[in-house]
Structures are given as structure tokens and as C-alpha cells.
Design brief:
22% of the residues lie in helices and 27% in strands. The chain is globular, with a radius of gyration of 17 Å. The two termini are 32 Å apart. It is α/β, with parallel strands linked by helices and 267 residues long. A hairpin with a 2-residue loop joins strand 10 and strand 11.
């Protein structure tokens, strides 16, 4: 495949109030307060012939996120819908033919229902884990399924099944866009998306990391992970690989790159 450069735009699809303890493993953080975080997707626009690509899709419904997952306040607004956010870039949901899902938690895969023509690229191991999560159903948060919404998963294994592309490890999805599997980090089949930009390599992290300074620069794994050693190694590799690490729930990152990454000339 020929080389291509991409511009990356964060799309604000909602927000949630969560504990800062999610940023540090085993909740060993002195920061115990609640912080408001964005729920982002990422729009990739090629400087060549490539079609736009969407990474993640946000949640389906704020009230559902609170009632099913039994989490804290979540918010959505008309201007935060996927349709409205794409319109800011002159696109409609029908223009999105490829969606890469970093993982299948409710706040990353809930918006798939809004994309009538897209193909969904996900790791096979992630879909398997989401369909039959290993967790006690007595857990009083996370929907009894460690934050997978079974309605979202059911759509992928049934209604959307003909449009699901399953990966088994690393794969190039388009010139300059590569999925990299980081197994048993945030989820069993979490993948990062490596994107070639004119300014260097951007790595869209999903929730493999939540906070760039803590998780990437200092190498402290975030609070929710499957295998500590796998997660620690992922932090080190991403730090070496990424010129621009892009987590999903960081307002500083959203504001820094709201006009597109790399920055436009004159900014």
C-alpha cells in the first residue's frame, strides 16, 4: 500500500463524571476526587484518496449508561451526537465506511447503531470476551459484564455480523492506519490505532491508557486492566512508538487537538 498522511479530529460524543482512581492501578492514587471526562471518537481524514475512518463511536444513551452500568452521571447533548459532530467536518454517517473499535465497552461501541453502511473492525478476541465476559454477575456495577453493554454486543454478533471484520493481531486497515493488538490490557482484545500524520505517529489508545502523564510518561498502568505485566509493557511500547498518544477520556488532549492533529499552519 502507498504511503498516506492523515489528519485526526477528536469528536466529542458525551461526558461522564468518574473517580480519578481509574487513572492509577489498584486505585493507588492520592487523587480521590471526581473528575469530568470527555467521551471521544476520532475522525481520520486522509490527504490522499482514502475514505474517512472513524475510531470508536461513543455511547448509545446516557440514561442507559447510568441505569445498566450503574455508574455516575453521564451527559449527552444534541450537539454531541455522532451526526452533529461529523457534520462539523462536512460529513454524514453515510460517509463513514470503516469504523475501528479499540474495544467494545459501552462508551466506545454504543454508537455503532448510528452507522448504517460502515464495516466494523475489531479483534476477534475482543468480540469473544464481550459476548461471554468472565465476571461475577453479582458485581453491582458494570452491567454484570465488566462494562460491555450486551445490547451493543448483540448487534455486532447478529444484525451487524455481515459488516464485522475480525482481526487476529496486528493489521493495516488503510495506508498509514494500522491496528495493533495489546492483549489483556484494558480488555482481552484491546487494540491501539497507529496513524501516520505529517507530524509523526499518532497512537489512538482507546482505554489502554487514560492519562498520558501517569500512564505513558511515568509508566503507571491505569486502574482497570486484565494483566499487569502486559499493561506495563504496553505503556513502555506506546511511549517509544507514539509521537502523539491520544487517550479517549482526556479533556486536555481534546482541547489541544480540537482543530486537528497535526496542528494547522499558523496555530
Amino acid at each position: 500500500m502507498a504511503a498516506a498522511n492523515w489528519t485526526i479530529y477528536p469528536l466529542l460524543l458525551g461526558e461522564a463524571d468518574v473517580s480519578r482512581t481509574l487513572d492509577a492501578f489498584w486505585s493507588l492514587s492520592r487523587e480521590k476526587d471526581v473528575v469530568t471526562v470527555p467521551i471521544l471518537a476520532w475522525l481520520l481524514i486522509s490527504d490522499g484518496e482514502g475514505r474517512p475512518i472513524l475510531v470508536d463511536t461513543g455511547f448509545s444513551d446516557a440514561e442507559r449508561a447510568m441505569s445498566i452500568q450503574r455508574l455516575g452521571p453521564h451527559r449527552s447533548r444534541p450537539e454531541w451526537t455522532l451526526e452533529a459532530q461529523l457534520a462539523l467536518h462536512g460529513l454524514t454517517v453515510a460517509d463513514i465506511e470503516t469504523v475501528i473499535l479499540t474495544h467494545l465497552h459501552y462508551d466506545h461501541a454504543g454508537g455503532c447503531v448510528a452507522l448504517p453502511q460502515a464495516r466494523f473492525v475489531v479483534q476477534r478476541s475482543e468480540l469473544q470476551a464481550a459476548a461471554a465476559p468472565i465476571v461475577s454477575r453479582q458485581l453491582d456495577f458494570g452491567g454484570g459484564a465488566v462494562f460491555y453493554d450486551r445490547r451493543d454486543v448483540a448487534l455486532l454478533v447478529d444484525t451487524f455480523w455481515p459488516r464485522v471484520d475480525l482481526l487476529e493481531g496486528d493489521a493495516e486497515v488503510a495506508p498509514g492506519v494500522r491496528c495493533v493488538l495489546f492483549a489483556n490490557t484494558h480488555t482481552p482484545g484491546s487494540q491501539a490505532v497507529y496513524v501516520q500524520t505529517a507530524g509523526g505517529t499518532a497512537v489512538i489508545l482507546g482505554d489502554i491508557a487514560r492519562n498520558v502523564e501517569l500512564n505513558i510518561n511515568q509508566g503507571i498502568p491505569p486502574g482497570l486492566y486484565y494483566d499487569l505485566e502486559a499493561t506495563r509493557r504496553a505503556m513502555a511500547r506506546i511511549r517509544a512508538d507514539a509521537d502523539f498518544p491520544l487517550p479517549t477520556h482526556d479533556y486536555d488532549i481534546f482541547h489541544r487537538w480540537a482543530d486537528g492533529l497535526p496542528a494547522r499552519a499558523g496555530r
